[in-house]
Design goal:
This protein has nine helices and 14 strands. The protein is of the alpha+beta class.
C-alpha cells in the first residue's frame, strides 16, 4: 500500500499499488451512477440517504465500470453480484488507482462497505463481471451503491419524504410541471408546520399561474381539465358526474384539486416523474 495526494482536497489517502490501475479508456466509457433517495426504510438501510441500483443481462452489458461523484466525508457501501462469482470489486480514485477493493463478500457477491470519501470528486467502480469469463449468455449481474451523506446522523424519516412527495405532487397537479426549488421548499415548510393540503391547494388555485393554465371554466369544464391535466386522460362518465355533483353541492375547487392530486391513480402516474426528489445534507429538497 502506498499513499496518494489529492490536490483538490489537499489530503493524503491510501492507494493499493499492487493492484492494476484503471485505464483512461475505461474511465471515459464508464456508466454514470445517478443516485436517488432511498425508498426502503428497513433497519439495515437506516443510515443510507441515496441509492443506485443496476440490474442487467451480461450479454448486453457494455461495460462493468461505473462512475459516481462522491462527496468528501460521505460514506459509501457498494455491492456487486452475479450468477457466478465476479472477479474482484474495486474502487478507484480519479487518477485510476485502487483505493478500496472487495472485502470478502459471499460467493456471487463482492462488497466494499463503509468507505469514506477522502475528497469531493469522481470515483470509479469496477464490478469485474467480464474478466472472469465464466458467464453464460443469460447470466444476470447487479450493482448497488448506497450513499450516507452524514454518517452517524441517519437518513431522513419516511414521514418527511412522504410530506415532500405530497407537496411535489400537488405542484405537478396544479401547474402541470415540476416545482421550482425555492417554491417547493417553502411549501414543504408550510405543510410541515401544520398547513392543510386543501389550504395549500387553495393558494395554488388562486394564483395567476393556475388561472392562466385553467382559465375560468364551468364546473364541468373544470372537472374535464382536472382529469386531463392531473391524470392525463379523459374523464369517464361516472367519475365526471360524481365530481360535478360534488362541486355543485359545496365542494370547493381547491379541495377537488387536492383530492385528484392524492388519488391513487395520480400517485402511481407521478412515481417516475418525481423519482429524483431528494434532500441535500443541508436539508434542501431538490430534483
Amino acid at each position: 500500500m502506498t499513499s496518494q495526494y489529492s490536490y483538490a482536497s489537499e489530503i493524503t489517502y491510501p492507494v493499493y499499488s499492487d493492484r492494476p490501475s484503471l485505464h483512461e479508456y475505461d474511465m471515459a466509457h464508464s456508466w454514470e451512477v445517478l443516485f436517488s433517495l432511498v425508498r426502503d426504510r428497513g433497519v439495515e438501510q437506516a443510515g443510507w440517504d441515496n441509492e443506485y441500483q443496476f440490474n442487467g443481462d451480461i450479454e448486453w452489458v457494455e461495460t462493468d465500470v461505473f462512475a459516481f461523484y462522491g462527496l468528501r466525508g460521505a460514506e459509501y457501501d457498494i455491492f456487486a453480484s452475479s450468477d457466478e462469482d465476479p472477479g474482484e470489486l474495486r474502487l478507484y480514485d480519479d487518477y485510476g488507482d485502487v483505493i478500496a477493493f472487495d472485502q470478502g463478500g459471499s460467493y456471487g457477491t463482492d462488497e466494499i462497505v463503509g468507505f469514506t470519501a477522502p475528497y469531493s470528486g469522481w470515483y470509479y467502480i469496477s464490478a469485474d463481471w467480464k474478466s472472469s469469463g465464466w458467464f453464460g449468455a443469460d447470466d444476470m449481474v447487479s450493482l448497488s451503491v448506497f450513499e450516507d451523506l452524514d454518517p452517524g446522523s441517519g437518513a431522513i424519516s419516511e414521514a418527511d419524504f412522504d410530506d415532500a412527495m405530497t407537496v411535489a405532487r400537488l405542484y405537478n397537479a396544479a401547474f402541470d410541471r415540476l416545482p421550482d426549488i425555492q417554491g417547493l421548499n417553502y411549501w414543504i415548510d408550510q405543510y410541515d408546520g401544520g398547513m392543510a393540503l386543501v389550504e395549500m391547494a387553495a393558494n395554488f388555485y388562486s394564483s395567476a399561474e393556475f388561472h392562466t393554465l385553467y382559465g375560468h371554466p364551468s364546473n364541468g369544464e373544470y372537472v374535464d381539465q382536472l382529469y386531463f391535466n392531473v391524470l392525463g386522460r379523459n374523464a369517464d362518465s361516472a367519475g365526471f358526474d360524481f365530481w360535478v355533483t360534488e362541486l355543485e353541492t359545496g365542494l370547493s375547487r381547491s379541495a377537488a384539486l387536492a383530492y385528484f392530486s392524492e388519488s391513487e391513480e395520480n400517485i402511481q402516474n407521478t412515481s417516475d416523474t418525481l423519482a429524483s426528489l431528494t434532500v441535500t445534507d443541508q436539508g434542501v429538497w431538490i430534483f
